[in-house]
Amino acid sequence: MTTTARTAADRAPAHRGEPDTAAEILARAKALAPVLRERADEIEKNRKLPADVVELLRGTGVFRMGSGREWGGPELTSMDQTRVVEALAYGDASAAWCGAIGSLTGPITSFLDADVVKEVYPRQDMVTAGVLAPAGHAERVPGGFRLTGRWSFGSGIDHSDWVTSGAFVFEDSRPYASPDGSNPHESRQFLVPREQVELIDNWHTTGLCGTGSCDYTVTDVFVPENHTYTFYEPRGRLSPLSTPDAFMRMLCGVALGVSRAALDHVREIAATRVDRMTGTAWSDSFRVQVALAECEADFNATRNGVYGGMTRLWEVLEAGGEPTPEERAASPLSWLHAYRSARSIVLRLYDLLQTWSINRSSPMDRWLRDTTTMCQNLPAQDIVLESVGAYLLGGTPKFRISLGITT
């Protein structure tokens, strides 16, 4: 084991009785949710997760839930992973977002050689964070690359063990083309120890304030060839988690968890509130009844769409089949809809409560800001609609990873 790997392992303290089943991880996430709700103000003001909150998350098993059985992990399905993220988001969106990001260690191992996995991930609850977009410059040198660049939106990077970053490859300062001619300017992912990454304290934002999604830089760091990977080349056991979109599936659970939390919050208030002007109980108010019922309908349809599309895709991939265009398209469309539906539901509930929503002491204020912010994330953008539309029409999608396409 290298010195770097030992350093990373030391930052991930051992937890006895690590959860190994979907039921146990989900139960721990649900049990943690009230604690996260109580600490939501602190998490937001801190602008990143407090160290003990990171360890509470680690104790649920969320960081290791996508790890393969061959590495001692529980290898939860994407559906079970999404349920865990939902449960955490019911407590706090920022904590759930970081939990989902940190769980990417599992899928990443599918794209690394086995000896590298053993070296860099001696424990499967170690955290990998970073930005997949190729914003860096990687110069080919003997044995690997010299990596330099600046990346934005590094959620959870402060408490990470390893940082994965996308970069374009150069050789002799010229764009490097893939040897097979498939790519005129090759890009790869590069694993760098957190200690070799510099954070830029610029995360001052509308919502998801506690995710610590700051910019970061890497300056002329040597990355061995075998610490790089591409989504075109799975190196481990093939499974439904060894496809590019596996990195993104469970993240929409944050939107679902916040939606459910907001709905339950408003229903609890409406059950006892009386209109001061008319004396009418909110439970008997047509306005309240219709608004709540509409939001429940939207939530149920949205959630069923997420799990329906995800389950079908998983079944096809697990059987070794090739998904139809409609089966591939269903998942990214349902993710986008989950983000946008969450914002719509929270906004309507915010309006329903009127002035009771506007104080910072109300969770509605945070939920409105969190859902607005998560809708600015790439999977919630029109490029997903454009890419899915192009794919269904036989064109070339721009955002191929969301469809699990590597060619």
Automatic annotation (TrEMBL):
Residues 35-111 form the Acyl-CoA dehydrogenase/oxidase N-terminal domain. Residues 250-376 form the Acyl-CoA dehydrogenase C-terminal domain. Keywords: Oxidoreductase. Coiled coil: none annotated. One of its GO terms (biological process) is fatty acid beta-oxidation using acyl-CoA dehydrogenase. Signal peptide: none annotated. One of its GO terms (molecular function) is flavin adenine dinucleotide binding. GO terms for cellular component: cytoplasm. Belongs to the HpaH/HsaA monooxygenase family. This is Acyl-CoA dehydrogenase. It comes from Actinacidiphila cocklensis.
